[in-house]
Amino acid sequence: MQPNMPSESHASKLHAAHYADRMKQIHTTVEQNELVGENTFRLRIAAKPIAAMVVPGQFVMIRLAGTNAPLIGRALAVYDVVRDANGEPTWIDLVYLRKGVMTRALSASALGTAITVWGPLGNGFNNESCDRLIMAVGGIGQTPMLTLGREAVGTETYGDPARANRWSENVELIYGARRKSLLAGVDDFRSAGFDVTLCTDDGSEGVKELVPNVLAARLAELPAGERVRVATCGPEIMMEKVAEVCKAADQSESEPSVTCDVSMETPMACGIGICFSCVAKIRQDGPEQWDYKRTCVEGPIFNAKDICW
Amino acid sequence: MPNTTSLSTTLGRLTLKNPIMVASGTFGYAREMQEVVDVPRLGAVLPKTITAEPRVGNAPWRTVETSAGLLNAIGLDNDGVDAFLENHLPYLRSLGTSIVVSVAGRTTDEFVSLAERVGNEEGVSAIELNLSCPNVSGGIDFGTNANSCREVVQSTRDRCKVPVLAKLTPNVTRIAEIAQGAADGGADAVCLINTVLGMAIDWRRKKTMLGNGMGGLSGPAIKPIALRCVHQVASAVDIAIIGIGGIATIDDVMEFFVAGASAVQIGTANYYDPTVSTRLIDELPAALQEIEATSVAEVVRSLG
User: Fold this and answer.
1) Domain A20-121, what fold?
2) What value does the mean pLDDT of chain A take?
3) Which residues of chain B have pLDDT under 50?
4) Start and end of every FAD-binding FR-type domain (chain A) (predicted)?
5) Do the Cβ atoms of A101 and B65 come within 8 Å?
């Protein structure tokens, strides 16, 4: 059998520098598991150490305890951190789309079902200050954005020690789905104080338009010189288009300066950097050079200009 | 309960403080796991297989879950021996437990020079010859032919000062013959088994799920195959055996001992239960005591 070897190849010493060095494995139970949209569920589990440490854009691996069906954990972004009566981060909420074997099993899990979860994992979004954060998401890609937006506007802090918050003057969400029923948690984003623009493929809610096109129109309205950060999560083809839109706007003299952070989703087996499954092609050392990087520990957030789509 | 149970185990010239090892390729380079498990407690650590040159590995997807198993075609993605010695070995040797370095070559010479070079490094307890990775061309040939197996093991043993373990593939007709080849070559132990060659198909797209087409199946799905291989080799060949294949619970560990293994490697379970390895060390004394054994050796090859 001849492996499908890419032609470029070179040594990378960077693999040595990334670890899931703060993750905790926790045995817990389902405390809430409710339908929040078509085939979309919000799961709540007690996971104090994870709730205390997680920063926006990080994720956890989750699996049903005591079964080999399914066997492997699944990576889910942390949607919300819920505090107890004393204000201590105590629960994490995960929003997932019922799609495959694991999410079908999870959606059928009664309260009290034993769950194993490990995290927080991944690098998370950066929190450098900007004038405007635009979260451009599609499908189930809204899930890492509630915490990110809250941190940006300054209504929440995340991490231990807490990261700086209130790092963006303005926070907007552009959220697209195939149809209205698949939009989940819109009220959460609205009540968090973000400007929300909805779009659907069939026009059943918001504008009948694709997320990258809505983003392009929005960027064209913004003044030159404004520092905009776009954070995107969703189907890979959508993220690629979003990255193109950001690049074009950034190169235009009449539009704002735009950076784009992409939350990559690749199939993972461990989430902690030991299996080398979840690789994405990432540029390094000039435009022709790339390496497979593990999205679990070297991502999942990558600068769009580093991704070889 | 008095703690009179001995967990140490002997594999040819290699003695481990306990029989719970982690399988190569399922534990990174150990540093990834330092905040997850108490790594120095492990009987031995096997870092991800290294090759002479860096390998970028296979195109995604690299893993696909199947029923009670995981199909993988990572393709020995690694930074090569130079980067290993510079970046990983200093940390590994600081752990204070046995370090068994897995190497893979395309030729006997490549195996020998890798094993010689790595085996001469301070802090390396043994070399595991990956004679069986299904995801790269070349390596598997050594594991499917008894003469080739004997030759590569013997050549390595002649030039490598530390114990030599041979990790074999189950994808053969008579695994005991291959194991006999390894024994004749002077291997200190055989590691049984590497992954079982398999594939997964997306029928709608009419494509294989793995970027590489075929891959190696691991996890609980292959445990019966691994137990059978261990039993067959234990029955026919005078060599120490390290059992690998779907081990996730203390029952699994004990079954492998009874079948003939003197130690085990935890593989895929590290992915879906990251703290499993040291938990099994915790659970081992009680399991031995349950059958009134005071050492691992008493249980090895005890199938009635």
Assistant:
1) Elongation Factor Tu (Ef-tu); domain 3 (2.40.30)
2) 93
3) 1
4) 23-127
5) yes
Report the run of H or E that residue A31 belongs to, with start and end.
strand A24-37
Distances (CA, A) of A10 to A2, A13, A290: 19, 10, 8
Active-site residue, B133 included: yes
pLDDT tens for each residue of B185-207: 999 999 999 999 999 999 999 99
Report yes or no: A308 at the B interface, CB cutoff 8 Å.
Answer: no
The domain made up of B9-59+76-197+217-290 is a member of CATH 3.20.20.70:
yes
CATH tag, A130-260: 3.40.50.80
Which portions of chain A are predicted below pLDDT 50?
1-16
> Is the confidence metric ipTM above 0.90 for this complex?
yes
**In sequence order, which ranges of B98-216 are alpha helices (DSSP H)?**
108-119, 141-144, 146-159, 175-184
Per-residue pLDDT, A2: 31
Give the CATH fold of the A264-309 domain: Dihydroorotate dehydrogenase B (pyrk subunit); domain 3 (2.10.240)
Nearest alpha carbon to residue B92 among B162, B32, B163: B32
Instruction: Give the pLDDT of residue A21.
Output: 77
- Selecting from B32, B63, B74 the residue whose C-beta is nearest the C-beta of A272 gives B32
Q: Which one of A9, A19, A71 has the shortest CB-CB distance to B56?
A: A9
Q: What's the sign of the alpha-carbon dihedral A294, A298, A301, A304? A: negative
Chain B residues whose CB is inside 8 A of the A5 CB are: 56, 58, 75
